């Protein structure tokens, strides 16, 4: 009888410990579970509630303002919603699409990504490659409003993780004759880079990429009035592959845009390659 009595006391203590666990973890943003019914946190009408870290917990209000969770101390704890940590690169120029890497946790294959800004149309992520902790996608920020945009990741369950002001859209404003590219540096094994420049007027041009030893790796011709040879903004994409089918090795490469009629260099810049 004494053994049974002590066993009953232990079970009661364990049951109270389980309820204490709910109190301890309420508001942490985790979903508590231990069976078919899994509840925890503060009463919230049974809805999903976001926390400061972008996770979620679920509650079920009971009479008297109490709430339920799985009984006993054996409830499991796990993160449930997308959790965003970093974005690389965290900025881009509003002249061309940009490819980014989102690092975090709890990414599902059904995940969607977008940039949001008050009063502006959302910019969805496209060409997505999704892993459990990394997402690669393209954002078409051409013509987008400059400033800070929020990065939002949503899964099929309707759970959302955000990175407030996580991406900055910059204005493409620089001197004629200067070439910029983004991302820079870039890794040809993972991404392409967008080469951007301005021209004073329409012109038939040749864009050439050289190594630092003056070996030509890549060449493209563009007609006057088309992207590449038009007055104003132009953008080209280089995937880091030479015209000989070889991936560029680590180093710095020179980019020249040349007027075909005069042979004059209209714009020049440098592209850095870092293979990880």
Description:
With 276 residues, this protein is mainly beta. It has one helix and 19 strands. The protein has one helix spanning 2-25; strands at 31-33, 48-50, 56-58, 76-78, 83-88, 91-93, 98-105, 112-116, 123-130, 134-139, 147-154, 160-170, 180-182, 193-199, 205-210, 216-222, 232-238, 251-259, 265-273. Strands 5-7-10-9-8-11-12-6 form an eight-stranded mixed sheet, with no helix packed on it. The chain has a four-stranded antiparallel sheet with strand order 16-15-18-19, with no helix packed on it. The protein has a three-stranded antiparallel sheet with strand order 13-14-17, with no helix packed on it. A hairpin with a 5-residue loop joins strand 11 (147-154) and strand 12. The longest helix is centred in the first third of the chain and has 24 residues, at 2-25. It is globular, with a radius of gyration of 27 Å. Mean pLDDT is 75; it is low at 7-79.
């Amino acid at each position: 009888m004494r053994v049974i009595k002590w066993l009953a006391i232990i079970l009661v203590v364990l049951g109270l410990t389980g309820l204490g666990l709910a109190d301890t973890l309420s508001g942490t943003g985790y979903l508590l579970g231990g069976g078919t019914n899994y509840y925890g946190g503060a009463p919230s009408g049974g809805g999903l509630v976001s926390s400061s870290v972008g996770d979620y917990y679920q509650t079920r209000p009971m009479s008297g303002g109490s709430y339920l969770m799985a009984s006993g101390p054996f409830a499991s704890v796990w993160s449930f919603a997308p959790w965003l940590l970093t974005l690389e690169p965290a900025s881009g120029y509003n002249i061309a699409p940009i490819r980014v890497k989102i690092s975090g946790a709890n990414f599902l294959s059904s995940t969607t990504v977008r940039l949001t800004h008050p009063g502006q149309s959302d910019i969805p992520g496209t060409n997505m490659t999704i892993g459990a902790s990394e997402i690669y996608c393209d954002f078409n920020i051409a013509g987008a409003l400059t400033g800070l945009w929020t990065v939002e990741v949503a899964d099929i369950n309707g759970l959302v993780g955000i990175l407030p002001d996580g991406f900055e859209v910059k204005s493409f404003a620089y001197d004629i004759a200067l070439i910029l590219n983004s991302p820079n540096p870039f890794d040809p094994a993972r991404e392409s880079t967008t080469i951007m420049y301005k021209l004073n007027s329409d012109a038939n041009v040749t864009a050439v990429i050289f190594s630092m030893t003056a070996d030509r790796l890549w060449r493209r011709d563009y007609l006057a009035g088309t992207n590449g040879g038009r007055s104003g903004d132009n953008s080209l994409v280089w995937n880091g592959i030479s015209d000989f089918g070889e991936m560029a090795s680590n180093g710095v490469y020179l980019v020249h845009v040349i007027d075909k009629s005069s042979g004059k260099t209209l714009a020049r810049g440098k592209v850095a390659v870092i293979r990880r």
